[in-house]
Amino acid sequence: MPVTDVQQDIDTRTLTIVAEFAAPVERIWQVYADPRQLEKVWGPPTYPATVVEHNLAPGGRTTYFMTGPDGEKYAGYWQITATDEPTSFSFDDGFADEDFNKKPELPVSKNVFTFTEHDGGTRATYVSTYESAEALQQVLDMGVVEGASSAINQIDDLVAS
Fold first, then answer.
1. Pairing of strands 121-130, 61-67
2. Which residue windows are transmembrane per the record (predicted)?
3. Phi and psi (nearest 5°) for 150?
4. What total number of domains does the chain contain?
5. CATH number, residue 52
């Protein structure tokens, strides 16, 4: 299991997930840079993702939807704020309607994904910061820890194939 640690801090409004992969930093970067690979790991196994638009450049946008077991589609977007290939990228992640417009009633998180060399592989640190403690609690109640962990845990199989 790649996920080695999960920390939630209501005071700082952050959720931090750390994972370790037996693949070089450049390979883990490719998982996020290539929309077809990203589709295999962004959603949990029972909610696979379909990436519609993908641009990791600062100012770029990624749009996607996850399809649940019942066929229901759940849309989201990333607004890319910074990129330092192959070691990190930052983005705002939000829930969207079917036209990929922001759903204002649901939280948006500011995310920093960092990839560093560790023991011949990669340590990935995923930090999500929310506007309020209530927003963080809302996504925790929605199962973000379980969903994100099960999604991240799919990366090992992808990079091994």
1. unpaired
2. none
3. -70, -30
4. 1
5. 3.30.530.20
Cis peptide bond N-terminal to 86, omega within 30:
yes
Residue with tokens 């609690």: 137
In a 10 Å sphere around its CB, with 0-12 CB exposed, 13-18 middle and 19+ buried, how is residue 14 labelled?
middle
Measure the CA–CA gap between 67 and 98, rounded to whole angstroms. 12
Q: What is the pLDDT of residues 83-129, one digit of tens each?
A: 999 999 999 999 999 999 999 999 999 999 999 999 999 999 999 99
Contacts of 101 (CB under 8 A, 6+ apart): none
Which residues constitute the domain of residue 54? 6-160
Residue 1 lies in a domain: no
Query: Considering the entire predicted model, what is its pTM?
Result: 0.94
Question: Which residue type sits at 19?
Answer: A
